[in-house]
Design a protein that fits this description.
single chain, alpha/beta, six-stranded parallel β-sheet, 12 helices
Length: about 260
């Protein structure tokens, strides 16, 4: 997986131009890129989606630096993917049948999902929201995954968000994509569940403007995030330099992804 070869969404406007139908929207940032260098299944899951969103200024800058022929114009946070999709669905005219459009959230805890349902009822009053909280474990069993697939297919959502953190969410949806009997956009947006629920706070606008949301998350939870952002960002810089200096080589991170 090379930065120079990534085909990324160019700007926020591109989100509004995504056609209807069963479409997978993944996001990539410095952390997930480093994980993907060591995890081939994750790398394949990331790039197998229909759209790959540059969720971080580091990805934008790095793709330009290594000579990607189509570097993105701007970073597009997962929050922007979420808001674009929810606003679009909420603004659609009601069908003649009177059936309301439905957004589904798959992942996270029941506490977070309950907060999502309450806020969505206020922010997106034209939508019905359904949720499913999978078991909290490192790997899902076949029975767990079958229950998750069944919940999605029974809900028949007009929009599906999956929030189980990277790389679990991307690998799960790739493994079960053909089993999902849906005809809608699907976004793997991880931390956005907590942002929308209010259980985690987004960075102040000035930090968002300058691509420093990672610093806000580090300062907010240093014990949990220091490996991801101190070690992870250092490894990302090294990986970018290696690709620039040795463009013909396939590079891997020098440590397992779970170390982040």
């Amino acid at each position: 997986m090379k930065l120079k070869e990534l085909n990324l969404v160019n700007c926020r406007q591109d989100l509004r131009d995504i056609p209807p139908g069963k479409t997978l929207i993944n996001t990539v940032n410095a952390y997930s890129y480093i994980c993907a260098l060591k995890d081939e299944a994750f790398a394949k899951a990331l790039v197998s989606g229909d759209y790959l969103v540059p969720d971080g200024v580091s990805i934008v800058m790095a793709t330009r630096f290594v000579g990607n022929p189509r570097p993105p114009q701007q970073r597009v946070p997962g929050w922007d993917v979420f808001m674009c999709e929810m606003n679009r669905l909420n603004s659609l005219p009601a069908p003649a049948s009177g059936k309301r459009k439905r957004a589904m959230f798959l992942g996270s805890s029941e506490q977070v999902l309950s907060a999502i349902r309450m806020r969505a009822a206020k922010d997106f009053p034209n939508l019905d929201v359904v949720t499913y909280s999978p078991p909290f474990k490192e790997e899902f069993s076949a029975e767990d995954s079958a229950a998750m697939v069944a919940a999605v297919n029974e809900a028949k959502p007009d929009l599906l968000f999956i929030g189980m953190t990277a790389p679990k969410q991307e690998k799960w949806v790739r493994a079960h994509w053909e089993e999902l009997e849906i005809d809608c956009h699907v976004g793997t947006i991880g931390a956005v569940f907590d942002f929308f629920a209010g259980t985690s706070k987004r960075a102040p606008l000035v930090m968002q403007k300058y691509g420093l949301e990672w610093l806000h998350r580090l300062c907010s939870d240093p014990r949990r995030m220091w490996r991801r952002y101190i070690i992870g960002n250092t490894k990302f810089i090294i990986a970018v330099l290696r690709e620039k200096i040795f463009p013909g080589r396939q590079h891997e991170a020098s440590y397992p992804s779970h170390a982040l």
